[in-house]
Write a structure and sequence with these properties.
By secondary structure, the chain is an alpha+beta fold. The chain folds into 2 domains: about 20-145, Chitinase A, domain 3; about 170-315, Chitinase A, domain 3 (Roll). The protein has helices spanning about 1-20, 90-95, 145-185, 235-240, 265-270, and strands spanning about 25-30, 35-40, 50-60, 65, 75-80, 105-110, 130-140, 195-200, 215-225, 230, 255, 280-285, 305-315. The strands form 2 sheets. Strands 1, 2, 3, 4, 5, 6 and 7 form a 7-stranded antiparallel sheet that branches. Strand 3 (about 50-60) and strand 4 form a beta hairpin. The protein is elongated.
Length: about 325
């Protein structure tokens, strides 16, 4: 009877230990990689050193899912260069066993990947537990293919930069003519003030101008010299130009004078306005977006802004009662 009970207890212990074996079904390679193939493709391209692997991966800490590869788009996941190695038998050693089209799970003891995560592991993931990486390789880019793609990308970038410079230089030559025409079309004085051509369209004799540090609240309509609108804070203007954006708040633009928050020409124009005034300003590209342009604004493009200075919030005075330094003006006794 006792012998039977002992056999039963031993059987239960053995079964429990087997069920709790974190490496059940895994094999160990000569490089000490714990692995288990889910899908094999013997005819697939072999993974080599310095390859870039394209695919998906799933990570589990014990039974807890950390990253779900089933919800992931195929993407670059790892490059098999020696500098990426963390320890013998790590993920790099693992994927070097794989081929294109294969799926394999690798098991890593918790302490071996501690440095990989800079020690930022969840508290439930304790020593003795295993992390499981399931790697699915959809494509492989060899080291040579990567170098060729990089070279092609550099050539395309250089070609684009050359085209951009040609365009910029051509527009820079045309800018004086464009400015001269805009001065005539919009009725500006031919003499620039602080680098911009400025004209008030609604005056206000409050003489309250924004100064350094003040917050200005400005409605604006930004246009090219041909009248095409590119941006505005005025809802009616946006709708009239068929550029209205649903959900965008159309309200005065706020910025602090002297903080370089705006293009220089915009700020110069606002500084010449009294609260409540409206104005129109022609800004040369040197005080706008220069030879590079921005978005739909081409290089060396002068711009037109219709402005309304809605509000000025004066900068707070320095706190505390600061006394002037008293100078001793009495003659020095010899």
């Amino acid at each position: 009877m006792k012998r039977t009970i002992l056999l039963v207890v031993c059987s239960i212990i053995a079964t429990t230990l087997f069920a709790q074996n974190p490496l059940e079904g895994y094999k160990t390679s000569e490089q000490k990689v714990n692995y288990k193939f889910v899908k094999m493709n013997p005819e697939g391209q072999k993974v080599l050193e310095n390859d870039l692997l394209i695919g998906k991966f799933t990570i589990k800490f014990g039974d807890s899912l950390v990253s779900d590869g089933t919800k992931m788009q195929s993407q670059p996941i790892v490059r098999t260069d020696s500098s990426s190695r963390v320890f013998q038998g790590d993920l790099i050693d693992g994927v070097l066993m794989m081929r294109k089209g294969e799926v394999c799970t690798f098991a890593f003891e918790r302490d071996s990947i501690f440095k990989l995560f800079d020690g930022n592991l969840p508290p439930y993931f304790v020593s003795g537990m295993y992390a499981y990486w399931t790697m699915e390789i959809d494509d492989i880019k060899t080291d040579q293919e990567q170098k060729e793609e990089e070279a092609k990308y550099r050539m395309e970038q250089e070609a684009q930069m050359a085209e951009h410079k040609i365009l910029s230089d051509s527009l820079a030559q045309l800018e004086p003519q464009i400015i001269a025409k805009a001065i005539k079309d919009y009725g500006f004085d031919s003499k620039a003030i602080n680098g911009v051509y400025f004209k008030k369209t609604l005056t206000n004799k409050t003489n309250l101008k924004p100064k350094e540090g003040d917050k200005a609240k400005v409605h604006y309509i930004g246009k090219f010299t041909d009248g095409k609108l590119f941006d505005t804070s005025v809802e009616e203007a946006a709708k009239a130009a068929n550029v209205f954006q649903q959900g965008r708040p159309y309200e005065p633009l706020e910025f602090n004078i002297g903080k370089r928050m705006m293009i220089p020409g915009f700020e110069e124009a606002v500084k010449m306005m009294n609260k409540g005034e409206k104005a129109i300003v022609l800004i040369p590209s040197s005080l706008a977006y220069g030879p590079d342009g921005r978005g739909e604004i081409l290089p060396s493009s002068p711009l037109i802004f219709e402005l309304e200075l809605v509000e000025i919030e004066k900068a707070e005075a320095p706190k505390g009662n600061i006394q002037p330094i008293k100078m001793n003006t009495s003659p020095i006794k010899k």
